[in-house]
Amino acid sequence: MTHDAAPSPPESTGRRFRAYTTKHLDELTARAGLGEAERLAVRAVATVLPFRVNSYVVDELIDWDAAPDDPIYRLVFPQADMLPSADVSRMADLLRQDAARSEVNRAANEIRARLNPHPAGQMELNVPTSTGKDPLEGMQHKYHETVLFFPKQGQTCHAYCTYCFRWAQFVGEPDLKFASSEVDHLVEYLHRHPEVTSVLLTGGDPMIMGESVLRRYIEPLLGVETLESIRIGTKSLAYWPQRFTTDPDAEGTLRLFEEVVAAGKNLAFMAHFSHPNEMAPDLVRKAVARIRDTGAVIRTQAPLIRTINDDPATWASMWRSHVRHGMVPYYMFVERDTGPQDYFAVPLAEAYEIFRGAFAEVSGLARTVRGPSMSATPGKVCIDGVAEVAGEKVFVCHFIQARDPELVGRPFFARYDEKAVWLSDLEPALGAARFPHERELRGGAAPRIGAAHP
């Protein structure tokens, strides 16, 4: 296959960050060998779901000779069949007709509304309230001891994953976005809720923020005595390791990490790696070493994604690489019930076999990893195995974390279903009428977490 030249000379590794957006999409997909009709279909998908990549991913991670089948290419570039064909055709027609932006946006928003933009009760159940009972913007409090905070300036990423479950943060619709610049509200909430021992800064990607902005969010947390850990959820190690090596504020960022550790807080750097190829560049390993030297602990996690990492060898290779460089494998997630889930989801039965196969190929140091785990409305549900109990084939499950703390660690059984891809697809087994997390079993709804203390 002959590939066209790159759309324009990108910045090389170690230089200034440069992003490619939808205006570059046609040229980049042509480089991958896609024909005109395929490129139009990809652009149609990108009117609904977000697209952003950068020069490092384009130059250092994608094997263009293998595109469009290269796993990193599939990780960041929309695929023509990610949405129902009728939706793709509708958006392609609008693009072909050069329709007004308002008309394109209206059609895109209709499709987005059908994609469950905020799964697991994020809008209805997870948003805490102030003393005046008003919702606290940019915060979620789903689990007793953990609060999520979405810094306003961190609601984008160095590049977007095609399967991202937070895609709604990036499509420019205010009603779909979580974000706050009010760190004082977070600190006040933590003082009123001493049961919260961990804050997760998430997005988007907090590491898109410069050191001075990141500091404004982190420094106030260091004085909260009841806070034990600060977590940063980020893809930056994979998509822009220069953030910790050659960027102008790399040194200042690492000093900030040291200050968190010196203040007696655990700094958990929650690194998102989806494929072992993301660990190949020397720059990544240098960035990992520099972060670890600050005293931060790097834990790694990613979802299991069809066509990208859906085989045991890929995961075993990735986990071994992480352990070799001092990182701690943490989670294999199941693709969430949002966005193009139908395209990327792996059935739970297959997911368990992939996890088990990879788990069997690594040493005990990598067996810190948990999964396959679903971050569903009642909590994180792990598929522990497939077994036959009392003559019935079942999934053996338990709650790693739960909205109702009484469910944590509690095993339960679901009927085996080789096609099920999510918790809502499962049915109780062994004659049970309901799962333990269903409200009726406890005589009512679990108390809403995050209500203000009197």
From TrEMBL:
Gene3D superfamilies under this entry?
Aldolase class I
Its domain of life reads Bacteria
Q: Which UniProt keywords apply?
A: 4Fe-4S, Iron, Iron-sulfur, Metal-binding, Pyridoxal phosphate, S-adenosyl-L-methionine
Q: Which InterPro entries match?
A: Aldolase_TIM, Lys_aminomutase/Glu_NH3_mut, rSAM, rSAM_sf
Cofactor requirements of the protein: pyridoxal 5'-phosphate
SUPFAM superfamilies assigned to the protein according to its UniProt record, in alphabetical order:
Radical SAM enzymes
**PANTHER family associated with the record:** L-LYSINE 2,3-AMINOMUTASE AQ_1632-RELATED, LYSINE 2,3-AMINOMUTASE-RELATED
Q: What is this protein called?
A: KamA family radical SAM protein
Query: Which species expresses this protein natively?
Result: Streptomonospora halophila
